[in-house]
Amino acid sequence: MGVKQALKSLDAFPRAEDHLLQKTQSGALVSVVGLVIMATLFAHELRYYLTTYTVHQMSVDLKRGETLPIHINVTFPSLPCDVLSVDAIDMSGKHEVDLDTNIWKLRLNSYGHIIGTEYLSDLVEKEHIHKH
User: Fold this and answer.
1) Which sequence ranges are marked TM in the entry (predicted)?
2) SS3 state of residue 114
3) Residue 118: helix, strand or coil by DSSP?
């Protein structure tokens, strides 16, 4: 028993006998139109799936006095973690130096794989203990 026979045995609806079938041009046209519609929909959905959409959205923060959460992911392949810091200045001129809230520093190997992780708050506490 071949693969083709095995698949035919799984068919829920057996094929009708040839003397019961009536082939018409309108039936062929419906089949061809259906295939064209299916191929078009498949191509459109595949293109939509493979297309990348970048959405840039910017708005003014009207809440004065509150901090604005900023999420960044930056990779420096050949820079030691010790020399990295984050500084910020707002429109009013308020300057925040060496921000250290919720910053992770991930050590990477030459292939970009993570080989070490330290949470910056832990680093700041260790430095504070060593300085005093």
Assistant:
1) 28-50
2) strand
3) strand
Q: Which residue has the tokens 């959205």?
A: 57
Per the DSSP assignment, residues forming a β-bridge with 108 are 114
Select from 131, 130, 117 the least CA-distant residue to 81.
Answer: 117
- Whose structure tokens read 């993570």? 114
pLDDT exceeds 50 at position 17: yes
Task: Give residue 54's identity as a one-letter amino acid code.
Answer: T
Q: Are the C-beta atoms of 95 and 87 separated by less than 8 Å?
A: yes
Alpha-carbon distance of 70 to 65, in angstroms, equals 15
pTM check: above 0.90? no
Which of 63, 80, 126, 62 shows the shortest CA–CA distance to 100? 126
